[in-house]
Specification:
mainly alpha; 2 domains; 7 helices; about 85% helix; about 0% strand
Length: about 150
Amino acid sequence: MDDKFYNKLLSDLLELKNEIDETKNKKLDMELLERIIKRLHSFECEECKKYLKVINDQIAILKQKHNAINEKDIKEYNKMKNNVISHLQKEHKLVTKDYYIGIYMSLGITLGLIFGLSVFDNIALGLPIGLSIGLAIGTAKDEEAKKKGLVI
């Protein structure tokens, strides 16, 4: 994808970000979209190029609506964004921010409950142990992914 298109896309995104109000900006999560655009541009994948064009079209639609963006538009936008994230995760092995924390924290809680019931006969003791171990492992894995540049 040429740099002219990429720069225009980023400038349109910035323009849209400045036009809409704070609540819609949070609902649309423009910061994440900016990171997605940069990631898509960094790969020489045909599907990534198609997704950049889809994002460009979606931004154009949202810019036309200005502050009249409704829930249907936000839902459609989030569906598109999730499809792009899914592509980046499956094809390019990228992860979202705090991906591993969520996985390992829930796994730690589960194992902590089992461990607490079987060893200590006390759920209250196993739960924080499992939670803290899962949180520590998840944080370490997230930091490792960040260092490797695998975070969207």
